[in-house]
Amino acid sequence: MKIINPHRRGILRPKQVRGANSAVVLQLLRRFDRISRADLARRSGLSEGTVSRIVSGLREQSLVAEVGAENSTGGRPATRLQLSDAPRAIGVEIQNWETRFAVASTRGALLETTALRTPATPKQTVEMIGAQVEAYCRTHGRALLHGVGVTARGIVNSRDGVVQLGNAPGWVDVPLRAMLESATGLPVTVEHDVRAAASAEYNYTNAGELAPQCLLYFRVDEGVGVGLILNGEVYTGPSMAAGEFGQMVIADDGSNSRHDRPGCLEKLVSNMAVCDAYAETQGRFNSASTADSAAKVRRICQRATDGDQAAMQVVARAARYLAIGIVNVAWGLDPEVIVLNSTLNTVWPILLAAIEAQFPDTAEWPAFRRLRVQQSGLGEQGTLVGAATLAFAPLFQLDRAG
Prior knowledge:
Layout: H1 6-9, H2 14-32, E1 35-36, H3 37-44, H4 48-60, E2 64-69, E3 79-83, E4 88-94, E5 98-105, E6 110-117, H5 122-140, E7 145-152, E8 155-157, E9 162-165, E10 172-174, H6 176-184, E11 188-192, H7 193-204, H8 207-210, E12 214-220, E13 224-230, E14 233-234, H9 265-269, H10 271-281, H11 293-305, H12 309-333, E15 337-342, H13 348-357, E16 372-375, H14 382-388
Parallel strand pairs: 4-7, 7-11, 12-15, 15-16
Antiparallel strand pairs: 1-3, 2-3, 4-5, 5-6, 8-9, 9-10, 12-13, 13-14
Helix pairs in contact: 2-4, 3-4, 5-6, 7-14, 10-11, 10-12, 11-12, 12-13
């Protein structure tokens, strides 16, 4: 696992070196959860003495805790370490129909969750978030909270903390970070929901270890979004709009539309598209709303598993289109791992077989031989974990001071 690229960093001052080394240790603890000092030294390339000094300092800051001994192989058993659960942060996932909240630890564990109906306007949403954050502050203690991470849909400028173009009316050029910092009195980080979920998958599952250079995170629900992790960093694009592969045309029907075209991936494999296709086989219109479309797709998948011919055809068609879209992106970006978070994961054997059927002959294209496709390890909680752990990001940054 590559953590430091010295060619990108230039010359560091001693304090910066100490901070970078501490960040490396914290990164390894985040990746491997429980690990000994000796393993930290081996994986980081630091000396055991340096690791011991770093760990001592991190324990004093309540960032690292000892959690028992490893099984002994003859000598004195090594003490295992993990990130401490003491530091807390709040995550907020703003969806069109509901807003989900969580308090999380640095280990990505969700300690408490809440869901409330999303209000009609950004101002009302900020007021609701402020009230819930204050409730968490009373319960967990404001001093323990490192900050608030918030995710939204649409085009999100994470650098400026602005929702430039949301998925709901009124969410245009909303300075969400400034509004929430004023409402909560805490540091606030704002990120796109799929990018946050991709980052959580990279940092808190085995995906990051398997994909040190390129990980693709596909999320398929009411739309299709792709998070790109390149060399350990989330790629946003110059306009903060990278990853909109849902607009990729898979089945061109000659339409002159330039957005949400009938043959684009989103129109073929989203939850509403699957519901529409199944309703059509029954000779009726789809009655599912965006809010309950996921539950309806799960029922369609169950019917397919039970042998319902119409459901089987709909699921197979959606799986094929999704597979074509995924492999098209893989052709262009050469990823090591593709993580898929989709309601169609309910029928994972069918979906995986459809994806692998689109792979070229690996004798001719060896890059596909090592490509791993796997289900999301965090599932529906991925975005919330990503949101809640945004506030901890400075702890893991290699350029932080000691």
